[in-house]
Amino acid sequence: MAQPQPAPLVKYIIAVLYSSESALQNVLPLLEQQWGSIDYQSKPYPFDQTDYYQQEMGDNLQRELIAFDKLLSPEELVVAKLWCNELEASLSVSPLPSAGEGVGVRGLQPKRTINLDIGYLDHNKIVLASVKGLGQKIYLSQGIYADLVARYGHGRYQPFEWTFPDFKTGRYDADLAQLRQIYLNQMKARRSQSE
């Protein structure tokens, strides 16, 4: 009978959605304090496949992929997502009331300046954390689900029908290929050190 083994380490990534360059620059040092050095940062891409976040975060949203040098266990995904949610909330701003509304009006929710979709990749998949328990998502704990958004095959991470629209376009394929190669090199170096 096969015995359970510890999961291989993975490369944590964050798809950072932001409303301004200053919002991005404010969050980067906080991410490094939590997970160590950033070893990959993509160029900014327009977030133009959906208007889902427009009312909350504004127009001309940008997305960048960020990754960290330190490899971690996939078991840390729940804690990582909860931490990201707390950080998003702490960086949110209160909207100004409309004309005729007083200060402290009920119903005015804080608006995020940054959205952090955290997950990880390994040599054959990309998994993102989610608080929404839809269809394919697998419950982990503390209200967090694992969302398998891509599987590696035919030279790229292949999206599924439920994968975020901007990931399905292929715009991040070159970045994800670089991230996969960095991860494979890191794993190879770890194996060499342990021999």
- Proportion of residues in helical segments: 25-40%
Distance between the termini: 27 Å
Describe the largest sheet.
9 strands, antiparallel
Give the strand tally: 9
Question: Summarize this, please?
Answer:
The protein is an alpha+beta fold and 195 residues long. It has helices spanning 21-35, 54-57, 77-90, 165-168, 173-194, and strands at 11-18, 38-41, 45-46, 62-68, 114-121, 125-130, 138-141, 144-153, 156-159. Strands 1, 2, 3, 4, 5, 6, 7, 8 and 9 form a nine-stranded antiparallel beta sheet that branches.
What does this structure look like?
The protein is an alpha+beta fold and 195 residues long. It has helices spanning 21-35, 54-57, 77-90, 165-168, 173-194; strands at 11-18, 38-41, 45-46, 62-68, 114-121, 125-130, 138-141, 144-153, 156-159. Strands 1, 2, 3, 4, 5, 6, 7, 8 and 9 form a nine-stranded antiparallel β-sheet that branches. The longest helix is centred in the last third of the chain and has 22 residues, at 173-194. The radius of gyration is 18 Å and the shape is globular. The two termini are 27 Å apart. The mean pLDDT is 91.
